């Protein structure tokens, strides 16, 4: 009998591996019929037709060809059960943040239903949202902080490329899973924004170690802004309403 | 006409995808068709018809917002550029003509002014539109009803005119989703530090170059050095450019990028991030794929082999969630030729629970795909997908909930077989658990759909059907009609095997074995593999049992046309292979001699994993194997195998091996070897790879 770490052998005279010594080898005799619920059950030589009525397909009629329509209706979605609905994530909040010379402020908020896949920490900026010492969200922002005119197809010299304007004020989206931040925790919600100087060795937010990314990746990240707490009562009324509604 | 939104690309919940919101400005009610057509032509057919974007459609949702402007066309501003169109500092406004539009953009046609500008209320109007009409957004495309050329990008936005092209938009998405740098060159020398973008560098050291994995060791580094006074980015300057060099697909180190022509380098002579029209270079492509990968949700778990274009080489269909891809084999590698998300024309809406059955259902020499879903919708659906004439698939038949004489239920199991010998594959369907009695149906293919030729209720001739019946197909009579084999090892006191001959429209019991076959005591754990191992045109039977006896057994039972006779039984060992409890087999034809051989795999009973071939002479087997690795493929418990002929050499000597992240092409002749390996996505880099 081989154990689980053996390797296969080849050549003449190799003995078969006995996987289960409690069982017999195959013989020539017919097997003993086993009983099922105390009975010997054998298939009939000539089975009788089914005569039952319940839980059966309707009777067979001469086969008809189904004409295929030119347009077909949408396939119908299954109803979501209460149990399935309860398993759905609470959704997330998309926060619109304005960054102006390093100062960050909330300019909009919207609750979005459904699960969230956090974006990889790749691109121009990375963000990290924390409550206390716990990371609640992180992600990358690929394209930010500049305005580019398309190249002029008939232009000459520099006009064959972009005209690039660096922006001192720009806006970004940050996404916060709702189950990780309650409305009452908003004053303790801290959002840091980093310029990505180099690629991070690990770009997937769910694979990051627990320490703040600014501490983990000192060489790769440079902080460009930090917002400490969101206090709806300090926000402009329309924004405050959006924030309260989104985190309700 | 009120404002509205239409989701024109539906890949999944917004939080799991990259969301593109498309807004129109200056489109009055009468202009909405033109706006819709532009979105279709430029974004959907244009950008998302191109290489990378086509492949990764399933990473994106697109929401087309129809905003009804009071006036047609956008506001206009005319600048006096004072003869210096590239310098905005000396420009003065000559005139501004305001129009009442939904977003208030002002078109100027001036490059130095980003071709357009935002009106005083435009930021608020844009945010209001986004908050009102789209659940979330990562990228925003604003289309202006303006025929002049122009576009302004940045911050995830691109505002374009009707004169903008798909290739420029695709370039801008390289910034917007990939965070890629421009690879344009302009006069001047770069004086900054190492840029953060993955596709530009100041580093000329091959050993530490960001994209060294894509640079062939034979390629000099640097590869292109800017001469004293060029007018544009440099190309290959270090001797003769090698034959076969691709300006967009080969990587090196070329001076000039990010608006400077010296002191900074790019990976390719002409990537999309420089020239707009070419595809992304390997570096940019990989970044785009990597960034989108969590959102695309592609895996290699569900792979189906089939010759979808009839060139004799098996291709693969990969199904992930609500998307499918067809990857065409050229004999040694795979390339994406079809990508569909959410649905195909017809329409079949893909879901995770779709089950695919590949076969030539219309006899045209190309494989079609029957698809069944019994779990994801309020009712069951059966569809038939056929060649769309351009490498893809479209739905040609769909049966919702039922078809005449068959009510679909979730437990329906399908088996592909040409039971009437007309050259068109048909389907057997069995349901053993959803009704009071089991059913077997014979779904005859007309080439354009199916009709139920015959249904068996509770019994087939000479066979009492039971829920645990297991079915196999194969022409054991050799008359060109594929027959039905059925085994039941658990519902009766003894096991049974039936051989039911197809008459073309019905089944007749040819032979039933009760408890024993010649030379073989049947047991519940018997596993059967139907294939013509004698090469006489009649399907024979391999039977294996590794669990019900002290040692494992493999029997070769030849079909006489009406019954079986034992040709060879291996007790414990086959020549070259020590049989074990968890050996798993697949029918193949490894040496293309018309005799059905076996692939065999065992990842449970030994220390390392074993993948083997068992080649038959018609009366016996000879095995060979690889241990632990096949080339670079590290065999594992999660591996799945699809026997096929991707080489197009005849027989069935190849294997597609796959698991969640990896897909490999293994050929068995002259011996098991890995021909190609892919990680996360299928792309054939000219040099290097994405791991």
Can you give keywords for this protein?
heterodimer, A: 248 residues, mainly beta, four-stranded antiparallel beta sheet, three-stranded antiparallel beta sheet, B: 691 residues, four-stranded mixed beta sheet, 52 strands
Can you describe this structure?
The complex is a heterodimer of chains A (about 250) and B (about 700). Chain A has about 250 residues and is mainly beta. In chain A, about 10% of the residues lie in helices and about 30% in strands. Chain A has helices spanning about 80-85, 215, 235-245; strands at about 35, 40, 90-100, 105-110, 125-130, 135-140, 145-150, 165, 170-175, 190-195, 220-230. In chain A, the strands form 4 sheets. In chain A, strands 6-5-10-11 form a 4-stranded antiparallel beta sheet, with no helix packed on it. In chain A, strands 4-3-9 form a 3-stranded antiparallel beta sheet. Chain A has a two-stranded antiparallel sheet with strand order 1-2. Chain A starts with about 35 loop residues before the first strand and ends with a helix. The model of chain A has no long low-confidence stretch (mean pLDDT about 90). With about 700 residues, chain B is mainly beta. Chain B has a 6-stranded mixed beta sheet, with helices on both faces. In chain B, about 55% of the residues are buried. Chains A and B meet through strand 1, strand 2, strand 3, strand 4 and strand 7 of A and strand 9, helix 4, helix 6, strand 18 and strand 22 of B.
